[in-house]
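Consider the tokenized backbone below.
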């Protein structure tokens, strides 16, 4: 009981299951809008695993200070929650949050990205004179430097741990 009392004394807030579900569904939709159900499921599990590893609610990971939006704005550094969730993303979020951990098909991945999407973005950026977007090989090197390594892939989504 003492850790809970300490949290309350520090003024920490607690996300509800509905907050986690909404944030997760928005992240699935924002990260993988055209993805297959399998890619969306992999993204959802990686997000769930990251929050579990950090011992924080999913809503706090994805929507710090209770606000959703694009990655890189505010304190959102992990994944975008910019898009409203579609029906499929909502169903996947609900299911993933209710399944036991042993059902995780990602092997405890804690991050994800789409190398093909990265290369497409780099090509467009180069054509428009934007040199800040890197290709997939450079992005993969930066991820490895940050301690993240590929553990598998689902469709175009690469999983990292």
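A designed sequence for it:
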């Amino acid at each position: 009981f003492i850790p809970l009392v300490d949290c309350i004394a520090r003024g920490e807030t607690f996300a509800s299951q509905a907050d986690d579900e909404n944030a997760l569904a928005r992240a699935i939709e924002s990260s993988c809008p055209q993805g297959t159900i399998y890619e969306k499921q992999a993204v959802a599990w990686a997000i769930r695993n990251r929050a579990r590893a950090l011992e924080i609610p999913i809503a706090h990971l994805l929507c710090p200070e209770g606000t959703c939006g694009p990655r890189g704005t505010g304190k959102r550094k992990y994944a975008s929650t910019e898009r409203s969730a579609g029906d499929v993303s909502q169903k996947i979020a609900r299911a993933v949050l209710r399944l036991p951990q042993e059902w995780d098909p990602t092997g405890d991945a804690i991050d994800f990205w789409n190398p093909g999407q990265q290369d497409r973005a780099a090509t467009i950026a180069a054509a428009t004179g934007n040199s800040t977007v890197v290709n997939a090989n450079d992005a993969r090197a930066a991820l490895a430097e940050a301690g993240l390594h590929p553990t598998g892939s689902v469709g175009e989504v690469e999983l990292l741990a």
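The chain has a mean pLDDT of 90.
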